[in-house]
């Protein structure tokens, strides 16, 4: 593992986390998190496609996409909704995240596989 | 100062995830996602600079949705049952851990 790779992963991670924070400020906590998670899944889907092997590198997948998305924030959003008995919000957040991220990954991979 | 701490926390978070998922695969991702959900739950209500540095940067970078989705896509091609089990385990343990964290909250 070279210093260059480690630096690239760390730099991408800071960029990803910064982008997620900025989206939360701009679009609101829940909406910004959803957008960040879906964008991260589209990007990692793109990197996972067979035609985009050069994007399938650690700085992009582990660093940028990994840090742009956050499972803990989604879990806390759902846990908080359950604690406050906001059932409809919990279902909405869960469905939007699961469907959005699943579709986003497939969309990214399809776009990456296009000639 | 907050920017510097944000950078350090995000770098630490990704380093932990990188090592854990590299060494233990999906088990590492699952452990970090669950532990991160619990830790972030503990921080709910904590003042903003601490939450931004530890919660958004550190724990946020340590846990991942994109890595989880990619692992699920890889698992589906090998075993649908394993993929569904992994997804359900992550979702239930993560939300449960976050709920416990919120209950134990430091705030």
Can you walk through the features of this model?
The complex is a heterodimer of chains A (115) and B (107). Chain A has one domain. Chain A is built from five helices and no strands. Chain A starts with a helix and ends with a helix. In chain A, 83% of the residues lie in helices and 0% in strands. The model of chain A has no long low-confidence stretch (mean pLDDT 93). Chain A is globular. With 115 residues, chain A is mostly helical. Chain B has one domain (2-103). The radius of gyration of chain B is 15 Å and the shape is flat. Helix content of chain B is 87%, strand content 0%. Chain B has 107 residues and is mainly α. At the A-B interface, α1, α2, α3, α4 and α5 of A face α1, α2, α3, α4 and α5 of B.
What is the topology?
The complex is a heterodimer of chains A (115) and B (107).
Chain A: H1 3-27, H2 29-48, H3 58-68, H4 71-83, H5 87-113
Chain B: H1 2-24, H2 26-43, H3 48-62, H4 66-78, H5 80-103
Helix pairs in contact in B: 1-2, 1-3, 2-3, 2-5, 4-5
Terminal CA distance of chain B: 23 Å
Q: Which strand-content bin applies to the residues of chain B?
A: under 5%
The SS-based structural class of chain B is mainly alpha
Number of structural units classed as domains of chain A: 1
Euclidean distance between termini CA atoms of chain A: 33 Å
Radius of gyration of chain B, taken over Cα atoms and rounded to an integer in Å:
15 Å
């Amino acid at each position: 593992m070279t210093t260059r790779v480690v630096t690239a992963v760390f730099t991408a991670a800071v960029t990803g986390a910064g982008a997620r924070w900025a989206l939360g400020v701009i679009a609101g906590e829940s909406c910004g998190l959803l957008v960040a998670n879906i964008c991260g899944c589209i990007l990692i889907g793109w990197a996972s496609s067979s035609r985009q092997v050069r994007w399938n590198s650690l700085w992009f997948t582990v660093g940028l996409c990994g840090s742009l998305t956050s499972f803990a924030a989604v879990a806390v959003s759902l846990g908080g909704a359950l604690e406050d008995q906001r059932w409809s919000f919990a279902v909405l957040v869960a469905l939007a995240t699961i469907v959005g991220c699943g579709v986003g990954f497939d969309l990214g991979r399809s776009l990456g596989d296009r000639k | 100062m907050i920017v510097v701490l944000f950078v350090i926390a995000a770098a630490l978070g990704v380093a932990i995830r990188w090592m854990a998922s590299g060494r233990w695969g999906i088990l590492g991702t699952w452990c970090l996602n669950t532990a991160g959900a619990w830790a972030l739950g503990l921080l709910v209500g904590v003042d903003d600079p601490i939450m931004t540095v530890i919660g958004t940067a550190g724990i946020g970078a340590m846990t991942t949705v994109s890595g989880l989705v990619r692992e699920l896509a890889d698992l589906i091609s090998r075993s649908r049952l394993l993929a569904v089990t992994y997804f359900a385990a992550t979702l239930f343990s993560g939300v449960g851990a976050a709920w416990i964290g919120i209950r134990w909250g430091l705030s």
